[in-house]
Structures are given as C-alpha cells and as structure tokens.
Amino acid sequence: MELTLAIAIGILFGSGVWLILRPRTFQVIVGLCLMSYGVNLFIFSMGRLRMGAAPILTKGAEIDPSRYSDPVPQALVLTAIVISFATTALFLVVLLASRGFTGTDHVDGKEREQ
Amino acid sequence: MSGHLMILPILIPLVAGAVMLLYDDRQRRAKMVISLLSALALLACAVQLLVLSKGSEATGGNRIGLYLLGNWPSPFGIVLVLDRLSALMLLVTAVLALASLVYAAAGWHRRGQHYHSLFQFLLMGVNGAFLTGDLFNLFVFFEVMLAASYGLLLHGSGPQRVGAGLHYIAINLAASLLLLIGISLIYGVTGTLNMADLAVKLPTVAAADRPLLHMAAAMLGVAFLVKAGMWPLSFWLANAYMAAAAPVAAMFAIMTKVGIYVILRLTSLLFTGSHASTGFGSEVLLVGGVATIIFGFVGVLAAQGLGRMAGHLVLVSSGTMLAVIGMALGGAGPGLVAGALYYMVSSTLALAALFLLLEPMGREQGSIAAMLALTADAFGIDDEGPELGLAIPATLTVLGLCFAACTLLLAGMPPLAGFVGKFAMLSSALNPANIAFRNDVTPAAWVFTGVLLLSGLATLVALVRVGVQTFWANEDDVPKVMALEIAPVIGLLALTVLLTIEAQPVIRYMDNTARALNRPEIYTNGVLQAARQREALQ
User: Fold this and answer.
1) Does residue A46 sit at the B interface (CB-CB below 8 Å)?
2) Which of A5, B11, B225, B396 could bridge across to B230 with cysteines, CB 3.0–4.6 Å?
3) Residue in B with minimal Cα distance to A103
4) Do you find a cis peptide bond into B232, omega within 30 degrees of 0?
5) What is the DSSP string of B282-320?
6) pLDDT tens, B321-359?
7) Has the keyword Cell wall biogenesis/degradation been applied to this entry (chain B) (predicted)?
8) Which residues of A touch B142 (CB under 8 A)?
9) pLDDT value at position B531?
10) Comparing B262-266, B320-324, B358-362, which segment has the lowest mean pLDDT?
11) Is A42 in contact with B181 (Cβ distance < 8 A)?
12) Structural domain of residue A19, as residue ranges?
C-alpha cells in the first residue's frame, strides 16, 4: 500500500509541476489543483498508513494507542483542503479578470511573438 | 483581563472586518471610522503587550505570555505565545496599519470594494502569524494574510494589477503547498507541531531521521523565503509591490518581514544550542541574503520608475536581515541580531513612508479627482463628490523634505535611524565581542560589510537622481497633495526621528530580545513549564 500511495503522490505532484510551468492560466490552475491533491495525500500518509483503524478514541476504556490511527493529520488535511479550495477559487476569479483585461489566457497577459 | 489581552490583536481585526461586511460599500465613512478605531485599539494593545513582554527583574527581563486556546495543556492544544520579538512585530504592524489607513482615507479606499474589511483580515493574519506558537496555525494565519493580500493587491483593478496579482497568487499558492509538505514531514518525524515542544524534541531525533527533518526544514525555509523575497525566489516581488495601490504597498512592507520573522523564530528555536542540527541553513541564508542585497541594489540602480525602485529597496532590506540571520546561526552573537532588529524597524517604517510618498510625487494636477470620478462611475457609486479635503501649502517643499528623510533612512546616512541601525550591525559584525582590537574578522563579515555599504551608496545615488528629477528639474506642474496623505508620511518619519533620539533604550530592548532569541530555553520553558505549573495548581 505504501508503494501505491507513494507512486500516486509522485504522479499527481509531477503532473502538477509540469502543468504550472505551462504558459496557459488554465493549465496553471489545474496544475495547482493536482499538486494540492498530492500534498493532501502526503499529509495524510504522515500519520502512518493504517487499514480499518478508527481515529476516534472510545471513552472510559483502557486505551491502546497502537490500535488507533493518528487523528492529527486527518484534521490537518481537512483544514488544508478547505484552504486550498478557497484560494484556488480566488485564483480562478483573477484568471477570468485577466482574460477579460488582456483577451488572452497567457500567464503574462500577452502572446509570445511567433 | 490581562490574560486575554494576547488574543485581542487577532480578535479585534476579525470582528471589525466581519462587522464591516454587513454594511453597504457606500457607507465608507462609517467603515473608515471602524477601521481606524480598530487600528488604534491594536496600537494600544501592542504597546501594552510590549510592556508586558519585558517582564521584571525577577523573571530575568523576559516574560513569555502564553494563551491556551481551548484550554488544553500546552504541547497538545493550540497556543498563542508572546515574547519580546513578537510584541515588537505587533507594534510595528499596528503603526503601519494606522498610517496606511489614514492615507487610504484620503481617497484610495473608494477605488474598489471591501477595502477596509480586507485590510482588517490582513492585519488579523499578520498578527496571528506573529503570535502563534504552533506550525500548523502558522500556516493557517499565513493563508488568512495571503488571501486578504490577494484582494488588496487587486484593489483599484486595472490590467497591471491583475497581471501582477496573477503571478503573485500563483507563486504564493505553490509556496503554501511546500509549506504544507514541510509541516507534515516535521509532524511525521517528531510527532509534534508545537514550536517549543519541537525545539525540546529536536536533539533527541534519531540520526536516521535527521536528513528527513532537515529536508522538512528546507521545505519550510523555501516557503518562507518566497515571502521574505530571497533571491532567486523574489522576482515576483518588485512587480507586485509596484502594481499595488500606495496604502496597500505600504502595508505590504510588513509582509516580507513576516517571512523574516518566521525564519528568525524557527532558526533561533531549532538550530541554536549544541546538537546535530545546530547551524543548519546558515550558509544558505548568508549567501542568499548577500545575493538578495546585490540583486536589490542593482535593481535600484537600474530601475526607471520610483515604484520599481521602492520594490527593490524592499529586497535590500530583507536581504540584509537574511544575511544577518545566517551569520547569527553561524555563531555571530546576539549583538548583530540586535542591530538588525533595529535596522528592520527603521527600514520598514521608511519603506512604508516611501511607498506613501510615491503616488503624490508622481501625480499630476487634479488627476486623483478625475480618477475617483471615473471609478465612482464604474462602480455605480453616487458619492457626494470627491472629498478632497485640505490641500497642503508649499507642497514641493514638504514632499521634498519627506523624500530626503526617506533617502537618508534607507541609505543609512547620519543623522537618522538608518545610520544607527547599520552602525550597530557593522560594529558587531566586525567586532563581535567588543574587544578593543581584533584581527580575526570572518570573511563573511567582510563581505557583508562591503555589500551593505555598497547597497547604501547605490540607494543614495538612485534616490537622489529621482529627487533631482522630481523636485528640481520640474517647476511647472505642482501636484496637489492633501493633508491626510502627507500626515501619515510625516508621522512615520517622526517615529524614525524618535527612534534615533531614543536609540539607547530601543537598542537595549533589541539587545535583550536578541539575547532571549539566543537562549531558546527561555521560550520553551515559558511555553511548556508554565502549562505544567498551571496544571499542578489545579
């Protein structure tokens, strides 16, 4: 499972990096999205990968922490998802404004001369 | 009550910003009043916190304020931590906010929507970043600050701002992702995000995990260095600062310092003392800082417009700070950091004043009225005519004097605070132990000295050139400048004069701050022991 996840994160992040280096604003935003997915998975994996373990401790009983998965990275991921979603939406607005001002979707606001 | 004082620098702007969202954008006067009141309250808070952070003789001249959000004990719950450094940064932020808001009241706040709310949220993010005691909340406050700054950068709209905003947002989103990777790696290796707890656990990290930890620190470093504008991560900076509206750019002068603050905080907590990671990143910061100064002053010399010049001056200022942090990590002693902190305060105030001066200096007669009428049209706002207010007499003289003061401050010429700061830095770089005669000055200190002096010369040449063009070679079109616009500039410059006159107590405060930074156990004990004592009492 570790290998699968590592490869998935690598592919997501690699495609993201390639896309944000492209000249079109839409490619950049998709690239940023892919990178943030990769990062979210990465944060999640930092709590160690566990199958079928609950992150919430039961009250009262004797607790054996090794039987639970770490709740902190899951909380961090939630926050990170919300924040990156919001900022990406904001970026989308600026992207549209830039398209409206310049009439092109090139990141520099003008096409490169042929 | 004083226990809750620490959360106020975050709560006041949050509430003020949220309340203003309820008002229609036409009620600018009401919003302006709320905004100014909030800034004044922040200033009062910051002064009070600064006094508190000095502690007493009994506490060794330091008092670490601790605020447990949610009242969980310290390494587990989220905490706010106040020490001398964060109190200082809060004060600088509040001063800049007040100056920038007064300036905006002269007309800029009408040129787009929700200016005041965004401004308050920016303050909330900046103050939160200075106060937070754990890494993940640092990320959250950074994002609050950045999200507000995206909106503020676009304030006033126009193709130039949108273009610069696009690049600014893209690079900051990418940097935030790196920040997240770094934070989660640190959590994966050490199992904690609390900075004080991290500092305690760091020496015990297994040798096999240490490369991973260093990689995490480097990732965090890159993310913060993008904000601080270290070369080669700084190409976005001059464009963004140049495009921003004048009061926004003045407020942005503190944003690079947020990056600097975090780097100073984390390096002093994690990489001082004596363990396997001591001095990590010192060379990178030193070399990067010096390269940033060089890039900055070459840019200053090459710049055609005053806006781009000011953007590069921001780089010179943060490059100096980074180089000093690098040298301090390499074991240069607290005197250097004390000088650098003094320099940082004076240069931040001077840069803000310069950004506020730019627009009136480049303005032609009556253009702001025309501009305002145009935007009022575009937004469908039927204002009671532009409230131009009082125009000041002898405009060119006043502008010229303010500009000359900025030049002296930024170039580091006597008699103003810029000179005191540079002198303090150089004297401790060349003579760290205050010995009468020394021969063993490190090569790094020589390079730093040379580059710093060169940057001062370049700043002087470039700014004097602009000054001559603006004030001497041009007698026909005198710009019309309102009293409200020049008052914050004069206020900021008066503060730097005060810094110069009261240099001794200020330097003493900085010196104690730097000494406290050099002894991370003050911070960690303050955060971890205080919580345990409280627990024992209950």
Assistant:
1) yes
2) B225
3) B159
4) yes
5) HHHHHHHHHHHHHHHHHHHHH-SSHHHHHHHHHHHHHHH
6) 999 998 888 777 788 888 899 999 999 999 999 988 887
7) no
8) none
9) 60
10) B358-362
11) yes
12) 2-49+69-102
Residue A92 lies in a domain: yes
Are B346 and B496 in contact by the 8 Å Cβ rule? The answer is yes
User: Is residue A107 situated within a structural domain?
Assistant: no
Cβ–Cβ gap A42/B157 under 8 Å: no
Instruction: Give A92's contacts (C-beta < 8 A, 6+ positions apart).
Output: A29
Q: What is the distance of C-alpha B384 from the center of its chain?
A: 37
Asked if A57 is an interface residue toward chain B (Cβ–Cβ < 8 A), one would say no
Spell out a b/e string for A26-61, using b for 16 or more CB atoms within 10 Å of the CB, else e.
ebbbbbbbbbbbbbbbbbbbbbeeeeeeeeeeeeee
The closest of B177, B258, B118, B138 to A88, measured between CA atoms, is B177
Smallest Cβ–Cβ distance between B159 and the set A25, A43, A101 belongs to A101
B176 found inside a domain? no
Q: Which residues of B touch A78 (CB under 8 A)?
A: none
Q: Which of A32, A36, A46 lies nearest to residue B187, judging by beta carbons?
A: A46
In which band, very low, low, confident or very high, does the pLDDT at B382 lie, cut at 50, 70 and 90? Answer: very low
Tens digit of each residue's pLDDT (9 = 90 or more) over A90-100: 888 888 888 88
- Are A39 and B163 an interchain contact pair (Cβ–Cβ within 8 Å)? no
Task: State yes or no: cis peptide before A73, omega within 30 of 0.
Answer: no
| Single-letter amino acid, residue A95 | L
A9 domain residue, yes or no: yes
- pLDDT classification of B93: cutoffs 50, 70, 90: very high
CB contacts < 8 A, A to B, total 89
Q: Which residues of A touch B180 (CB under 8 A)?
A: 39, 42-43, 80
How many domains would you assign to chain A?
Answer: 1
User: Which residue type sits at A35?
Assistant: M
- Here the CATH number for the domain that contains residue A88 is 1.10.287.3510
Where on the phi/psi map is residue B60: left (φ > 0), alpha (ψ -120 to 50), or beta?
Answer: left
